[in-house]
Amino acid sequence: MLKIFTLACLLVGSTTITPTINAGEATKHSEINIGHTVHFKSDVMGDTRELNIWVPPAYKENETYGVLYLLDGGLKQDFQHIAGLGHLGALSWTYEKLIIVGIETKDRRAELTPSAEVKRYRDEFPTSGQAAKFRTFIADEVMPFVEKNYPVNGKKTLMGESLAGLFVTDTFLKAAEMFDDYIAISPSLWWDDQRLGRNAPALLGEHSKQDRRLFIAMANEGLAMQAGLDKLVAALKNNPPHGLTWRYDDLSETQTHATIYHSAALSALRWLYALPPYPEGKIPWYLEVPDAKE
């Protein structure tokens, strides 16, 4: 059971910086609040866990929203820049408003990796292989808390990059019913001698007919990273599950592992949740071309 014990305002960063004020300059400053943090005791993980939650501007309790569950969602991880993409969508009307739930990871190599069958991976990464446990934590504790406390519409998305992208892929292949949409950016499919990619045909064959969407993007990674993804993409091309819509963005000529995340995440949101170019599809009268007068 989820045991909530702290609900605190989330400020940008953990350090407060007070600027020096000179004569004639602004004499008042305030902190920037972009969301809130929830700390709780997790029965599944056996320790204290953190969620960072962003809601759209003009958030209304009588409206409902889809939820983007963000892996590596700590304040020093990816929460703040992905929350910025949520804000961009809400202001620009280019894609749907979403609630963003950042799920902090503490030991990424442990929590985001499936159990390895190859011994050298277990030897090199002794804490690894807890992805199934972390998935249970999300399903049994995080998601029920969000659904109880926020006006959600039932639409759920999982997003992550690198090892978090590996977890997204692992979840899509093994527990596709958990989420409606999956966003895996430069997933670390080198893990366990590319086992997820090699097992993809069999795992996809076990999928029941259900509407799911999958967005994959890969930077210039090469070697086992690309080879593992190539196996997954081949399996998706040869035997896609019924009801699956998927897209692969090959960004190897323009992006590196260090640069891909933000721009690929924006592409994913625009693809998955695109809105008409004008609210309700109505073109403003001043942009219409008047009929030519004879």
In short:
The protein is 34% helix and 23% strand.
Record keyword descriptors for this entry:
9 strands, Rossmann fold, alpha/beta, 23% strand, 34% helix, 9-stranded mixed beta sheet, 294 residues
What do these coordinates show?
The structure is a single chain. This protein has helices spanning 79-92, 108-111, 119-124, 131-149, 163-174, 191-205, 223-238, 260-272; strands spanning 3-11, 33-42, 47-54, 65-71, 98-103, 152-161, 181-185, 212-218, 244-250. The protein has one domain (3-10, 44-277): 3-Layer(aba) Sandwich (Rossmann fold), CATH 3.40.50. The radius of gyration is 21 Å and the shape is globular. It starts with a strand and ends in a 22-residue tail after the last helix. A 9-stranded mixed sheet has the order 1-2-3-5-4-6-7-8-9, sandwiched between helices. Helix 5 packs parallel to helix 6 and helix 6 (191-205) packs parallel to helix 7. It has 294 residues and is of the alpha/beta class. 34% of the residues lie in helices and 23% in strands.
Q: Count of helical segments?
A: 8
Spans where pLDDT lies below 50 across 5 or more residues: 4-16
Number of domains: 1
Q: Return the structural class.
A: alpha/beta
Instruction: Give average pLDDT, whole number.
Output: 89
Strand content: 15-25%
Note the main sheet: 9 strands, mixed
**Terminal Cα separation, in Å?**
74 Å
According to CATH, what is the class? Alpha Beta
Q: What share of residues is helical?
A: 25-40%
The best one-word shape is globular
Looking at CATH, which topology would you report?
Rossmann fold
Strand order in space, largest sheet = 1-2-3-5-4-6-7-8-9
Q: What is Rg? A: 21 Å
Annotation, overall tally of beta strands: 9
